[in-house]
## 1
Amino acid sequence: MSESRDYDVIIVGAGPAGMTAAMYAGRSMLKTVVLERGASGGELLNTEIIEDYPGFEHIEGWELAQKFESHAKKFGAEFQQETVITLEKMPDGAFQATTDSGTIYRSKVAIITSGGTPIKLGVPGEIEYAGKGVSYCAICDGAFFRGHTIAVIGGGDAAVEEADFLTRYAEKVYLIHRRDEFRASKILQKRLFENPKIEVIWNTLVDEVQADAQGLVHNLVLRDANTHETRNLAATGIFIFIGFRPNTGIIEGHADHDEMGYLRTDMNMETSIKGLFAAGDVRVQLTRQVTTAAGDGTTAAIAAEKYLAAMRSPSDEPVISGSGGYAV
Ligand code: NAP
C-alpha cells in the first residue's frame, strides 16, 4: 500500500521560486514540503556565475542554490527528492501530489514552481558544455562574453531580440537560422539588420559544439541545410533560443494558461484553481529572472498563508487581495 503524508503546503519544484516560497511558508509556521526530482536549484544549476542577484555581486549558480535551500530549511521546510507525476485537487478540497516512488503527498494548498525547460538542439557538446560557453539566457550570461565572437541560434523573436541585446557585450554576433527567413516580428528584424555587429547565417544548422583543452567552447561545426556541406565557425559562445516549454505536465489541462502553456495567475499568484498558486518561470510574465522568481515565491507563500487563515475562519473577510502583508 502506498504511503500518504499530510502537509499544509506542497511546493513542486526547488528552483528560486520554490525555495523562496518554502522559506516564507516555513516562517509562517506552515508544515511545508518541497518536492524536487533532482538537486535543488532549477535554472541556477545551468548558470555558471550569477551577478544580478542583489547582494551577491558574483556567486556561482550552485552556491546560490545551496544558500536558498539551507535558508528554507532553517525555517523548517522539508525537502524530498521526488518526481511528481500528477498534482490534483481532490473532491474533499485537498491537493494530492502523486510521485513515481508511490508516496502520496496531501496538503491544503499547493504552489507549483516547476519552471520551464529551454528546448535543446540535441547536438553533441551542447549539454556537456552548458555553462562553459553554451547558454540559454542572454541576460544571465551575456556579460561574460565581452569582446567575444559568439553565435545565436534560432529565428523567432527570442533569438532575434537576444542577438541584438548580446551586441552590448560581444564584438561579433552570428545569428544562425535553419531557414532563409525569420519568423520574428518585423520590428525586431529591422533592429537586427541595422546592427553592424550582427551577421546572419541563413539555411544553416549546428551539428556540433566543440571545446578547447580547458573545456571552453571555441568552435561550432555548421551544416548547410541545402547542400549538407559542413564548415567550422570559431565562436566562444553559443546562445540557443529555439523555444522554451513550461513544465506544467503535472496539472495538464486543469489550470488556465496562455497559448504557450504558461499558467495565468492573479496578483496573488493564484491560478484558476482555488488554493493552487504558481510562481516563477512556469507562469505568464514579462521576464524570467532569479529576482522575479524569488518575488513570485514570496507573494505565493504569503497569499497561501492568508488563504489558509481564511479557510480556518471562513466568516472573516478575505484578506488576500492588496493587503501587502508581511510574514512574521
Ligand atoms: P519560437 O517563436 O518558437 O521560435 C523558435 C525558432 O527556433 C524558430 O525560428 C525555429 O525555426 C527555430 N528552431 C526550432 N527548432 C530548431 C532546431 N532544432 N534547430 C534550429 N532552429 C530551430 O520561439 P521563441 O523565439 O522562443 O518565442 C517563443 C514565444 O515568445 C513566441 O510567441 C514569441 O513571439 C514570444 N517572444 C516574444 C518576444 C518579444 O515580443 N519581444 C521575445 C521573445 C519571445 P523555424 O522558424 O524554421 O521553425
## 2
Amino acid sequence: MGPNRTKPYRLAAREARPHRTVIDVKGVQVGGPGLVVIAGPCSVESEAQLFETARAVRAAGAHILRGGAFKPRTSPYDFRGLGKAGLELLAEAGRLTGMPIVTEVLSERHVDLVARYSDILQVGCRNMDNYALLEAVAETGKPVLLKRGMAAKIREWLLAAEYILARGNDRVILCERGIRTFDDEYYRNLLDINAIITARLESHLPIIADPSHGTGRTGLVTRAALAAVAAGADGLMLEVHPNPAAALSDGFQSLTPAEFGNLMAELRALCQAIGRPLGPELGTRAGGVA
Ligand code: PEP
Ligand code: MN
C-alpha cells in the first residue's frame, strides 16, 4: 500500500478524522495523552487468583483489568476458561478495584452475555477475520479491542477494524500482539514494532501493544513493553499472575505482581523521558481502591 493509493479502510484511515480517536472507558481515556495500562491474568482461574491479581495491578498503577473467561486454546483438552462464572468474577473484581474490565468474546453466540459484563469486548487474534463476529460485537456499541491476527497484514487488520466502524461503532482499539515468525526457539511470537508505528501513521484509532503474547516469554516482556511505548503505542496489555508456574494458561509469559511493579517503575521513567504522562494514578478516579 503506497502512500498515494486510496486507502480501502475509509473510516479507519488517518485522513477520515481531523484528530486521533480517544475512547472513554468509564473515565479511562484510551488514545488520549495518557498512556493506558491494561493488566491481569491470562485466564480467570478462581476468585482468589483474580482478586489478588486485580488488587496488585491496581496498586501498581494499572487502569483496566483483563482476564479471559472464554479461552481460545490450541488443544480442546486444555483449560478453556470458567465461562459465565469467570465473567461474574471479573465484574466483581472490577467493581472492587475501580477498574473497567476487558475480556475476550470467542464466539457470536456469547456476544450478548459478554457485553452484559465487560466494558470492552476483546476480539482475539484467531478471530480477527471472523467478520460475522466483528459485526456482532460492533452492534453492542461497546468499545472493541481488536487484536491483530498472528499472520495478518496491516491492511487486513485495518480492514477488520473497518468492519466494526462500518457497522456504526467507532470505538475500536487496535492491539498488536505479535506475529508468527521462523525462530520460535527463544520466543513464541515477534512483537511487530513496525506495525505499531504504521498503525499510528495509517489510522486515527488508538493502538495498544501486548508484549506478553508478543514475546511469549516473561524475560522479554518488560523491554518489549518499553520499546512499544517508545514506538508510539497508546498503552499496554500485560499478563500478570500471582504464581506463574501454576497458571492454567500462559504462565511462561506472565509477570509476577513484583515484576509488574518493576515494569511500571520503568514505564514511569520512560514516560518522563518521552514527555507522555502515564494515565490517571491510583485513587484519582471515581471508583475507589480495594
Ligand atoms: C489473550 O489475550 O489471552 C489471548 C488469547 O490473546 P491472543 O488472541 O492475542 O492470542
Ligand atoms: Mn494469554
